[in-house]
Amino acid sequence: MSGYSEAADCPRCGSTESLERSIDRDDISGFCLECGYSYKTVYENIALKEVNEERVEFDMEPLTELKKPVEGWTDESD
Ligand SMILES: [Zn+2]
User: Fold this and answer.
1) 40 C-alpha to center of ligand 1: Å?
2) pTM of structure
3) Which of 2, 18, 26, 54 gets the highest tally of CB atoms within 10 A of its CB?
């Protein structure tokens, strides 16, 4: 499925339909054509300790180390 974009109301300046929001797979970004408000999804890796804290919440055994990413995966962000 390819992305799409839509107009939305800006939460910052309150303009109606001024926020151009685009959704492409897991990337969501938007910017306001009135006030310049912009945002973009940011992905970050969570430390083992925090992952384990979450796992406890789901009644899962804590990990001793994080699972390795699939081959070809890079953590670099552009
Ligand atoms: Zn705005």
Assistant:
1) 15
2) 0.53
3) 18
57: three-class secondary structure by DSSP: helix
CATH number of 3-57: 2.20.25
Q: What percent of the chain has pLDDT over 70?
A: 95
Residue found by looking up tokens 């992305």 in the block: 3
Compute the distance from residue 16 Cα to the ligand 1 centre, in Å.
Answer: 9
Distance 11 CA to ligand 1 centre (A): 7
* Cα of 77 from ligand 1 centre, angstroms: 27
Instruction: Quote the pLDDT of residue 55.
Output: 95
Q: Residue 50 is inside which H or E element, if any?
A: helix 48-57
Ordered by start, the domain boundaries in the chain are: 3-57
